[in-house]
Amino acid sequence: MKDYLVRATAGEGQILAIAAQTTLLVQEAKDLHNTSPTATAALGRVLTGAALMAATLKEGQGITIRILGDGPLGSIVAVARPGSVKGYVAEPGVDLPLRSDGKLDVGRAVGRGMLYVAKDLGLKEPYNGSVPLVSGEIGEDLAYYFTASEQKPSAVGLGVLVEPGGKVGAAGGYLLQLLPGTAGGIAETLEKNIKAAGPVSRLISRGHTPEDILALLLQGFSLKIHERQPLHYACDCSRERLQDILLALGQEELQRLLEEQGGAEARCAFCSRKYRFSREEVTELLASVPGRKQEGD
Question: Are 56 and 227 in contact (CB under 8 A)?
């Protein structure tokens, strides 16, 4: 089954509800970055969270999530637009022993630090928000971000089931938000439903669709589905974009690459595609570096 998400409201419009299946796109990310099981779970959760958040945006808008923890995984980045997501983890090979309950130890691999969110809403400046990581488990951290930074009481469930051979068996997540003016008692009912439903990765591995998951989470509420949206992993890198990154290195680094390598090679962090720049191309880049002194100056 292809990856997709469902966007809905419930409780006569008092609850925003989004659920997604992301198994295939998380597997693609694992293949692209050759991630260990722990890194696969961490990156997969961030990718899924970004896809859920992007579903609240309009076409052409985008969101970037950066997790900067002090754990061995280092930074985790995901960039999403409605329907597509890409991302990477700084240390994809890091793996840790399982927790005492047999689950992957994502929290310890991420560690403590900060969660940063940047929303590109098509305005002059992006909207930026940040909160401390509360657990490193990603779902709890995003829920805290919504509540503390955007003042939107939320529940976020994210899960990635990694099979013994490293294959992604199931991945997905949900986002539930209480909209302004929500009646009392709704949060308590949602908490009970969330506890009864259990981990989202287990639900998906048992064949539950995003629609099924929302039905479980929103038992007792009227549910209205507004949209079903396909999801996929997509990188939009190009030679031009990587060229801009090389330019940002500055004159000294470009000169060093020219002398030591006779050119330059740049790799896209999101899809690992490599771009080779010849001696002539790097020489042209050097000539265009802003503020570069010309001979005889």
Answer: no
Q: Is the pLDDT of residue 153 over 50?
A: yes
Q: How far apart are CA 248 and CA 237, in angstroms?
A: 16
- Burial degree of 152 (CB within 10 A; 0-12, 13-18, 19+): middle
> Average model confidence (pLDDT) for the chain?
92
Which of these three, 187, 218, 233, is where a domain ends?
Answer: 233
- Rounded mean pLDDT, 87-100: 95
Helix axes 210-217, 186-197, angle to 10 degrees: 130
Distance CA(10)–CA(65), nearest Å, equals 27
| Beta-carbon contacts of residue 99 (< 8 Å; ≥ 6 apart) | 105
Task: Tell me: do 113 and 150 sit in the same domain.
Answer: yes
Q: What is the pLDDT of residue 255?
A: 87
pLDDT in tens, 168-218: 999 999 999 998 877 778 989 999 999 999 999 999 999 999 999 999 999
- Token readout for 18 is 């989004």
